[in-house]
Amino acid sequence: MKRRIASWENGHGVPDDFYSPLLCEALGLDPAELGLTHPAAAPDASLLDAGYPDTPEAAFTAVDRLWRADLDGYEPLLTSEPSEPAWNEASLRWLVAPEGAFPAEPGGDSPRVGLADVAMIKSTADMFAQLDDRFGGDHARQSLIQYLSRDVAPLLSGRYTQAIGRALFSTVAEATLLAGWMSYDACHHGLAQRYFVQALRLAQDGEDKRLAGSILSAMSHQATFLGRFTQAATLARAARMGITSVATPTLLAQFHAMEARALARTDDTCACEVALADATRALEGRNSDDEPEWITYFDEVELAAEAAHCFRDTSSARQAVTHGENAMSGSHVRSDFFATMVLADAHMHAGDPEEACRVAADALDLGEQLKSARCVSYLAEFRRNLARASQTAAVRDFHEQAAEHRLWLATEQHTTA
Fold first, then answer.
1. Which tens digits make up the pLDDT trace of 126-140?
2. How confident is residue 34, by pLDDT bands cut at 50, 70 and 90?
3. 229 Cβ neighbours under 8 A, 6+ residues apart
4. Distance of alpha carbon 304 from alpha carbon 25, whole angstroms
5. 295: which residues sit within 8 A by CB, 6+ positions away?
6. 59 and 182 share a domain?
7. 3-state secondary structure of 159
8. Domain assignment present for 166
9. Domain span at residue 198?
10. pLDDT tens, 365-399?
11. Domain count along the chain
């Protein structure tokens, strides 16, 4: 019983119908006062709205309700699909109305917010970003959402100067972007899109064009993963267009790379290679001192990984192998897993299933600690390709070895679906 109570206190579900009345009676409070109400008990279609908020206050309300519904496990939200019109609306409205608004001064006993509060949010989000990178989006996602809902949401409706408010909105936008990435990695795609949209509005009100461009780039990444390739290319171009006045070489390089990823999947090899060349030229001119801290991870190794994806998808297997071999950083576990799997795919497409299996085995070892539905999807694609290869001794040995790995076992539902 103590364990159940601790779980409820930490936001992991709510007491069931047997325990709820007992808790209410013991504490002398009604279910609403104890937070025992559940969105599923009174479905609200507005939770599924992926529209771009009209005002800062609307964004605060929308993102807070998303956090709460996510924590409560509201199934229609967790299983929702992305909306293509929402991508179009968000990118267009940000492009044509890039200046941020400012909320009205709250009354009552709203908390006073200072720079120390903003710094605390930033440091906490950075910690979760490290956990995401090392263990995957499904590892600490709920803990991040709980922190945002319980500690950060009240600050958005607090009292602050315009300067502190802008910094607060930008910092919360970055944390909400992380929530979107983690939800995307867990393949809660509709939820991830809604977090991205709210993050974009917060970045707008924080007057942080660079971060807003990065959010559109994240939307592009997700759209490519979901097979919305034309939309993905458009989002990457919107990101680039929207930050023209404050562009940095690294940001431009990433946005060009996202466009290249999308173009590769449309079989437009020429346009893809042009976008990759633009990314390479942009990155050559970078100066880390002038870049936002959160984009400095994007370097030659990351660009090599993006190029490997592109050449794999344009059936340029040898080029994919060349770039894939340069795409492992040794410091970003999940990114290295993806790059290793792309290298395995490239060897497979090059007609070398034995080397593909050797590389995929490395990826399995690397990903043993990852809780990532995207990682499973990469493995599932490799498994389907491997099923069409000759069943040599090396391939059979790989199947035996892979059978001991959690991520490989998780691919079974992909192949049987």
1. 999 999 999 999 999
2. low
3. 223, 262, 263, 265, 266
4. 61
5. 210, 214, 248, 250, 251, 254
6. yes
7. strand
8. yes
9. 55-79+100-206
10. 999 999 999 999 999 999 999 999 888 999 999 99
11. 2
